[in-house]
Write a structure and sequence with these properties.
mainly alpha, 3 helices, 64 residues, single chain
């Protein structure tokens, strides 16, 4: 599940970066919509996680 989460976050970032660099209007307006979909998918994956991001951070601090 973490792999999918990372991939959706990466795709979101790439879409926004490419939209900023593009000279085509359709690309500049379409890629942010795709980025929004990727963000929503990542948030849905996070919501399904039995432990939220905060709990994972606390666990990581306990291990360290």
């Amino acid at each position: 599940m973490k792999r999918e989460l990372r991939e959706f976050r990466r795709l979101e970032r790439v879409c926004l970066e490419q939209a900023a660099l593009s000279t085509l209007d359709r690309v500049r307006s379409g890629l942010p919509k795709v980025a929004d979909d990727c963000r929503a998918a990542a948030e849905a994956i996070e919501a399904q996680s039995p432990r939220g991001a905060f709990a994972e951070a606390v666990q990581a601090l306990k291990v360290a």
